[in-house]
Batch of 2 targets.
Target 1
Amino acid sequence: RYAGFASLIENGPVQKVTLFTGVTVWLVTGHAEARQALTNPNIVKSFTEGPHQDHVPAELVAAMNQHMLMANPPDHTRLRKLVSAVFTRRRIDGLEPRIKQISASLLDSIEGSRFDLVSQYSYPLPITVISEMIGVPTDLRDDFRRLSSIATSGPLHTPEDYIAAISEMADLLRGLIEEKRSEPGEDLLSELIAVRDGGDKLSDDELTSMVYLLLVAGHETTVNLIATGIYNLLRHPDQLTKLRADRSLLPAAVEELLRYDSPAMITFPAKANAPVQIGDVTIQPGEVVLPTVWTANRDANRFSSPDTLDITREDNQHMAFGHGIHHCLGAPLARLEARIAINDLLDRFPTLRLADPAEEPARYPNLLLNGMTRLDVLTD
Ligand code: HEM
């Protein structure tokens, strides 16, 4: 992966490539160029570049893709405003004690001196948090988890398997919405339904799409921030020692872990709707633009010693959460979860180390998400 991305950086900040999916895109690998691309109003999100779009039935596209990440103004503005009203900073900050409780109970259940950090800690933590926040009952979580993993690795599955997964997800979401409608709870979905039923600002399809986005975006990336973040700390003992000694460095350390090995490698595809100049390149109407935030965060024109992990780095304006109008809505939640998770792991296991330090852990075969399938660690 590093070698692949390093060669992308060498090939220049804006380059035309044909992906393994057969789609030709402009990869925007430079930091300044990615910012330009993500703030240019003539580069707009386009779902036709999503996986297997020629095959997915229109009814399913409508039910699952009418969310803010695929929307452009004015729809984007309306959808983001609606969810921002219930996804508030106060609500996120109020989650801290509960996240700490979930973290502690996961750590309590770890037995023996060797464990897989991904399946036993970094995956269950964010999925439990976002499920509780949205109001997904415990018995549905494994299904959502299975389907979400297919949904986020669409090109690796056949169109039939991909469509079957999305379709099952849509049914689960519709069922859940009906349940919450008849029996509302103290959760975000019940509040969104109240918004939906209180006026005509949110259609039924927009509601299923929004819950789908929040569920998937709410855990598939945070799991990687925690696991890959711990991996990178364990591989840099000098940085780990500093952090162990001074926990006030945690917020800066989380930012640096986000920059150094970004959990989302790209932002979602977008298309030019007019000729657009990015760096030295003019992108023509209809051409696809794919900013790669992983490489933007390693751009030597923006960061000094970009390949060095430095948890005291200043002026760390990374793009791990994207940029512009689609800047990650869940960034405060992701940061809070990562701080708690890293802090609690370091507290609980004073000698935490990699079980196989000579081996590079297997990463997901995924263009969007940068994560490990497992990470064995030792605690003795
Ligand atoms: C958007 C990354 C956690 C919800 C984005 C984008 C990125 C990103 C790069 C922009 C995508 C684009 O422009 O195409 C991350 C990372 C996370 C994380 C690295 C964890 C480390 C979360 C969490 C939530 C969330 C916990 C909670 C629900 C969203 C939503 C959007 C978004 C709703 C779309 C915003 C919009 O279109 O206006 N995220 N995310 N994310 N993220 Fe996150």
Note: The longest helix spans residues 159-182.
Target 2
Amino acid sequence: AQLDTLDLVVLVALLVGSIAYFTKGTYWAVPKDPYASSAAAMNGAAKSGKTRDIVEKMDETGKNCVIFYGSQTGTAEDYASRLAKEGSQRFGLKTMVADIEDYDYENLDKFPEDKIAFFVLATYGEGEPTDNAVEFYQFLTGEDVAFESGAGADDSPLSSLKYVAFGLGNNTYEHYNAMVRHVDAALTKLGAQRIGSAGEGDDGAGTMEEDFLAWKEPMWAALSDAMGLQEREAVYEPVFSVAEDEPKGPYSAHNPYIAPIVESHELFTVKDRNCLHMEINIAGSNLSYQTGDHIAIWPTNAGVEVDRFLQVFGLGDKRDSVINIKGIDVTAKVPIPTPTTYDAAVRYYMEVCAPVSRQFVSTLAAFAPDEASKAEIVRLGNDKDYFHEKITNQCYNIAQALQSITSKQFTAVPFSLLIEGLNKLQPRYYSISSSSLVQKDKISITAVVESVRLPGASHMVKGVTTNYLLALKQKQNGDPSPDPHGLTYSITGPRNKYDGIHVPVHVRHSNFKLPSDPSKPIIMVGPGTGVAPFRGFIQERAALAAKGEKVGTTLLFFGCRKRDEDFLYQDEFKTFQEQMGDSLKIITAFSREGSEKVYVQHRLKENASLVSDLLKQKANFYVCGDAANMAREVNLVLGHIIAEQRGMPAERGEEMVKHMRSSGSYQEDVW
Ligand code: FAD
């Protein structure tokens, strides 16, 4: 043939290329292929005109199978993708898919013998090539076809090229599957060796898929023979990485586990106060705990307070608008998972019920709805006593505080300012009241529901977390009034994540631990919910005793108001007593039964010689509960007891307690 390379149509381009294409490319990339990660860069290079050489490209990327497609509507491309994936998964071929216009083809005569090229070609309109295959088609079927080596049509220039062909056509058109027929004929004429038959799918008959399936099995068999491929069990390789929206472990202070509450009940017998016992299941979460650890509960704000907040800041109408929160400065850490809604941000992520800071109130002056409220806010910001009288002593949260100033809405306050100025809603900690030895997958908590009216305040302060837990308890027990105080919790959580009585939790490990030797005596002081960890301690020792282990004296000082009102776990302690016999001693202090208020520290003093004896036997001493008063007094009383019982000066007693603290035999879990 007459060759004039200048006349040669140098056809089109290269690799994968476009962004859509890049996605496809990763579709069948063998994940551990060392070249896979460079595909994007390569594609970019190809697009920019650098790499249009398919032989070179396959070499560089370690591929031995290219699947070219000529596609108009995407169907041929899709079939090409499927073939690539199947070739990779079933036969271990290193496949790549290529838009036929992305590569040059005058060098197809250099296509290595040990590799394979597929042509998946749709016929368009009246027997025409698809747009992306026009040049390829013209080149291959043209009069003056010539290749890089200089060989022309008569020299069998493609004798080293093995190929597979499949066409997509429509028999209602006259030139049914003309594209694949003509290309197949041209390739054969040029000396290339077809593997299997040239398949034809018929869209007109609606049998495209069946035609494809029927064609491909014998084709794979023929290809296996030709290339010596071993079919293997198809290994699934995902195309997309799909990350669950739900946070997954490890669960931590940054990533709570949405735990089911499996049981809950009221511990008090009085109507006006509540103390909750809850069992939280951590099975399957990879969370673990040890007796004496803490569990953190991630609360939800009460509906009424969310409503109030949104109303005050004029966000009520657009509460469900989807918002994206981004740091304007790259270092600003967004405290709220985003996108979110105003409602979800306020309900789950912002501490909107907390006491208000004077400084924060001051920053709102610039956005006040009118001059009078602005003046009032400025005064509150500048006058500490006035602020205490009007805001702090009233126990107002931010929205209540603004409502006390004006009934107008603060619509001008940027939401960013609210995110910046208010704390992120904090998890609250609870001393785990179960033993990990007895129930390793179930964490018990003992929580008194906060509902207090401070002197002078016009309203009750309802604790965020404990009232939320109360609502969950009510729901779990089918109580007709799940929101006992009309607080209307969204119990199902953001995007219904907490559906079915779940609560987000994480575990915090503590040093508040039983002695490793159960025969060592222990003294525990835990009035009120301070008894929580000691229920766990006693549960553990009772179980050990029931197994026949020797358990040392286990002395508990417990205090509450009245024996038949708020004596926590009274019945359980009776059972433990049966298991432990004399080794369990419970000494109680009821502050509202007699004419005089009796507290645990009084009982401690009364039992000075017992306490002192146990300390001589190397007892550990534990205090849990109220930090402000009780724990301090217990510390003092113990110093006195030691000094007195051992005939030492008072200061020596204090020093002994200090020493006990530093050596770990005096442990506190107080709040
Ligand atoms: P919050 O909303 O946090 O309110 C708490 C208190 O803050 C209110 O009672 C009120 O006095 C004040 N307050 C809130 N808002 C306002 C306002 N707007 N104006 C003025 N004052 C306001 N508790 C238990 O019941 N059992 C336990 O076993 C237990 N273990 C704990 C262990 C540790 C290590 C710690 C740190 C704490 C423990 N707590 C325990 C306490 C518990 O973490 C919570 O603090 C408690 O349950 C109250 O949480 P809340 O969200 O219901 O109340």
Note: The chain has a mean pLDDT of 89.
